[in-house]
Design goal:
It is built from three helices and five strands; from the N terminus they run ααβββαββ. By secondary structure, the chain is of the alpha+beta class.
Length: about 130
């Protein structure tokens, strides 16, 4: 199991949701490509880390990942609504991964940052995926 498999599962879950699609203008991997001028609001699937969580009879992984929501709406209403939808989609759900593993996610934390120099709201959410072989 790899971080990439979790990334694909998370991206698939977020990008296939019509409600979230109606709230945002894109979902990006780690950063917005240099060739793109993003429309606000948007989401970035950010930093990831992986730790072994093996047991005697099976392999396991604990993968932490962050979701970043960026908005230029005056106030936090827009970004907070998007973050709430992301949490609904990712908290305590089992996502399909290939090859098949038991996979459940949990919400860890959220912080809201006002980036005044660029006039934007930035919400950082942290999640953790627990995986083990079937």
């Amino acid at each position: 199991m790899s971080i990439w498999a979790v990334q694909k599962a998370v991206y698939g879950r977020l990008s296939s949701d019509p409600t979230l699609a109606g709230m945002t203008h894109g979902i990006y991997d780690m950063q917005v490509p240099d060739s793109v001028t993003p429309k606000f609001p948007y989401i970035v699937i950010g930093e990831k880390s992986e730790l072994p969580e093996n047991r005697h009879d099976r392999l396991g992984r604990r993968i932490s990942f962050s979701i970043h929501v960026f908005s230029r709406y005056r106030g936090t209403k827009e970004a907070a609504g998007i973050a709430a939808r992301v949490t609904e989609l990712l908290e305590d759900v089992s996502l399909p991964v290939d090859p098949p593993w038991h996979f459940i996610t949990c919400f860890l934390s959220q912080s809201i940052v006002m980036e005044e120099d660029v006039n934007q709201i930035h919400i950082v959410q942290r999640f953790q995926a627990h995986l083990e072989t079937v």
